[in-house]
Design a protein that fits this description.
heterodimer; A: Hypothetical Protein Ychn, Chain: A; five-stranded parallel beta sheet; B: alpha/beta; Hypothetical Protein Ychn, Chain: A; 7 strands; about 25% strand
Chain lengths: ~130, ~140
């Protein structure tokens, strides 16, 4: 089955991203296709490479990044939600006159149309949120 | 902007009051984008989500942007199926007259304005939800 994933909560504060990560790993193991993972609301905070959790804790952002690299998963962060919360790639940082970017490798910033497209193209859209 | 002519039923379920969290505002943003993709869009307001449609909202005192007028534009985006959970209204001592009017224009009847609001019971709502392809909850 072709699955779209929507994550609406940030890391650590809320379980949503952890659960989504476990779900996506399990789905891949069962042979399903992940069409796209879309990060919205505070979910965009999953994309910052500047987060530095304690060493004995999981690093959710790194886990997403590695999963994306190993399985060629499209991780998309909503641009409007990201701008509000200070998640920027190089292009966005330059365009908005900011002195740095902070997006983790494997994530890309794009519009909400990517979420709607995932809803249209995937067999199921699964939301992880509050 | 339709995707190879695929039209799916997208329902957005709004459960939170308008200014306590950002969910109401960011839900509205997805709703408008979905309409631009020519999809079959409907909205549900339930739990504290019914407060999103309250008339005469004033946000000066809390320093937030009042985005409640955006709901009245939904009809212009061909979004004309708005479901309001009757029991949620009642539980909060509200009636539909406390809510802003939402209308759409019927081209086939000389652009007559028709109400987009449907008051439904939770049982009816559950039935309507089961007919959707995509349900996103905010």
């Amino acid at each position: 089955m072709k699955l779209g994933i929507l994550i609406n909560e940030g890391p650590y504060q809320h379980q949503a991203s952890d659960t989504a990560l476990q779900y996506v790993k399990a789905a891949i193991k069962k042979g399903h296709e992940i069409y796209r993972v879309f990060f919205y609301n505070d979910g965009v905070n999953n994309a910052t490479r500047l987060a530095t959790p304690p060493q004995d804790d999981r690093n959710i952002t790194k886990e997403w990044s590695e999963l994306a690299k190993n399985h060629n998963i499209d991780l998309v962060v909503c641009v409007a939600a990201a701008q509000r919360r200070g998640i920027l790639d190089k292009g966005e940082a330059e365009r908005n006159g900011k002195d740095s970017d902070n997006i983790e490798e494997g994530f890309r910033i794009s519009g909400l149309g990517q979420l709607v497209e995932a809803g249209i193209q995937a067999d199921r859209l699964i939301t992880f949120g509050d | 902007m339709s995707e190879e002519g695929i039209v799916k039923k997208f329902m957005y379920v709004n459960r939170k009051s308008p200014y306590g969290t950002i969910y109401a505002l960011e839900s509205l943003e997805v709703v408008l984008i979905t309409a631009a993709f020519d999809q079959d869009v409907s909205l549900t307001f339930t739990d504290d989500g019914v407060y999103q449609l309250m008339k005469d909202q004033k946000t000066d005192g809390i320093g937030m942007k009042n985005f409640s007028s955006t709901y009245s534009a939904l009809g212009d985006y061909e979004i004309k199926k708005i479901f309001i959970d009757k029991e949620s209204l009642e539980e909060r001592g509200l009636s539909v007259s406390d809510l802003q009017e939402l209308v759409w224009e019927d081209e086939d009847e000389d652009y007559a304005e028709k109400s987009s609001i449907n008051l439904v019971s939770r049982a009816e709502l559950s039935n309507i939800m089961s007919q959707q392809d995509i349900v996103m909850s905010f």
